[in-house]
Amino acid sequence: MYKRIRNQIHGLLKLEQPRPPRGRCSGLDHVPEFEPNRHLRLLTFNIQVGINTASYRHYLTRSWQHVLPYRNRIENLDRIARLISNYDVVALQECDGGSLRSGYINQVQYLAEAAGIPYWYQQLNRNLGQIAQHSNGLLSRFRPLDVTEHRLPGLIPGRGAIVARYGDRSDPLVLVLMHLSLSRAAQQRQLGYIRELIADYRHVVLMGDMNNHAEELLNNTPLKETDLVPLPPTAHSFPSWRPEKALDHILVSPTLEIRRSEVVSYPLSDHLPIAMDVALPKGYLEKF
């Protein structure tokens, strides 16, 4: 089906003007039940709306790609899909929900179908109509108990989080997918909000582009009240062509066993993806 969606870009040549899409999801009827007796392969990736950035000068020379369509974007999305097809749950940031620049293609849906991942959820955070549909995305091979979206506080609106719960309703595994603001003040407010969301849960994963280093996040923000475990401080993800900053994170509760974690060498966006395999708590299977 995604190949058919790809052909929609040719409609631009015919000056087609589809209605601007809104945040939406695939539905759960066709999604397999959550498997509590296995580990989960997690990935977070800021895809920069499918723009291939390989140097600082591209922020200037390729800036037009943030507002106008170009054919190589589909090829870039296909490359991203090949990567994410290896994972169970994927957090996406800087996606387009279907506007002029993406050829009116919902990039979250496109990537889910291209990667063969049955469940997808698009959170539309900043709606600029035909110009841009700034979105976060969740892709999942397993059926969550529920998925909710949250608008994060900030002086400039447009940041959001997706919360997906899996497993046992009385003691769920909670995944929070987010894209935080750049400013320290906004991050303080946003992480205070996130802290309240996860306060009552034991098994938590925070994933996304947090625009800050883990040491700062866990020591000088409301997350200091948690016991979340970060990746090593050397897990640099930005910029992708010369990584020197750890801005993308997967933070987990100590009840989850980290079997593997890595920065994935996949320089397509201006961020590198972060991957982690986690095992569910011992005895968790008995709760089902």
Q: What would you note in describing this structure?
A:
The protein is of the alpha+beta class and 288 residues long. It contains 6 helices and 11 strands. The protein has a single domain, classed as Deoxyribonuclease I, Chain A (4-Layer Sandwich), CATH 3.60.10.10. Helix 3 crosses helix 4. The longest helix has 15 residues. The chain starts with a helix and ends in a 9-residue tail after the last strand.
Helix-strand blueprint:
Elements: H1 2-6, E1 39-46, H2 58-61, H3 72-84, E2 89-96, H4 107-115, E3 119-127, E4 133-140, E5 146-151, E6 160-166, E7 173-179, H5 184-198, E8 203-209, H6 214-219, E9 248-252, E10 257-263, E11 274-279
Parallel strand pairs: 1-2, 7-8
Antiparallel strand pairs: 1-11, 2-4, 3-4, 5-6, 6-7, 8-9, 10-11
Helix pairs in contact: 3-4
Distance between the termini: 35 Å
Strand-pairing-aware structural class: alpha+beta
Helix count equals: 6
The CATH topology is given as: Deoxyribonuclease I, Chain A
Structurally, the number of domains stands at: 1
Uncertain segments are 9-21
Helix content: 10-25%
Rg:
18 Å
- Give the overall silhouette: globular
